[in-house]
Amino acid sequence: MKLSLGEIADRFDLSLKGDPAIEISNLASIDQAVHGDLVFLFNSSHRKHLTDTKASAVVMREIDCTDCQIPYLISERPRLTWANVAKLFDPLPMQAATRHPSAIVSDQAIIGAGVSMGPHSVISAGAVIGDGSTIGAGSFVGEGSKIGEHCRVFPNVTLYHMVCLGDRVTIHSGAVIGADGFGFEPNKGAFVKIPQIRGVVIGDDVEIGAGTTIDRGALCDTVVEDGVKIDNQVQIGHATRIGGDTIISGCTAIAGSTRIGRNCWIGGAVGIIDNIEITDQVEVTAMSLVTQSITVRGRYSSGTGLMRGRDWKRNIAAFKRLSNLFKRVRKLESERGD
Amino acid sequence: MKLSLGEIADRFDLSLKGDPAIEISNLASIDQAVHGDLVFLFNSSHRKHLTDTKASAVVMREIDCTDCQIPYLISERPRLTWANVAKLFDPLPMQAATRHPSAIVSDQAIIGAGVSMGPHSVISAGAVIGDGSTIGAGSFVGEGSKIGEHCRVFPNVTLYHMVCLGDRVTIHSGAVIGADGFGFEPNKGAFVKIPQIRGVVIGDDVEIGAGTTIDRGALCDTVVEDGVKIDNQVQIGHATRIGGDTIISGCTAIAGSTRIGRNCWIGGAVGIIDNIEITDQVEVTAMSLVTQSITVRGRYSSGTGLMRGRDWKRNIAAFKRLSNLFKRVRKLESERGD
Amino acid sequence: MKLSLGEIADRFDLSLKGDPAIEISNLASIDQAVHGDLVFLFNSSHRKHLTDTKASAVVMREIDCTDCQIPYLISERPRLTWANVAKLFDPLPMQAATRHPSAIVSDQAIIGAGVSMGPHSVISAGAVIGDGSTIGAGSFVGEGSKIGEHCRVFPNVTLYHMVCLGDRVTIHSGAVIGADGFGFEPNKGAFVKIPQIRGVVIGDDVEIGAGTTIDRGALCDTVVEDGVKIDNQVQIGHATRIGGDTIISGCTAIAGSTRIGRNCWIGGAVGIIDNIEITDQVEVTAMSLVTQSITVRGRYSSGTGLMRGRDWKRNIAAFKRLSNLFKRVRKLESERGD
Question: Quick one: which of C108, C105, C109 has its CA closest to C128?
Answer without folding.
Answer: C109
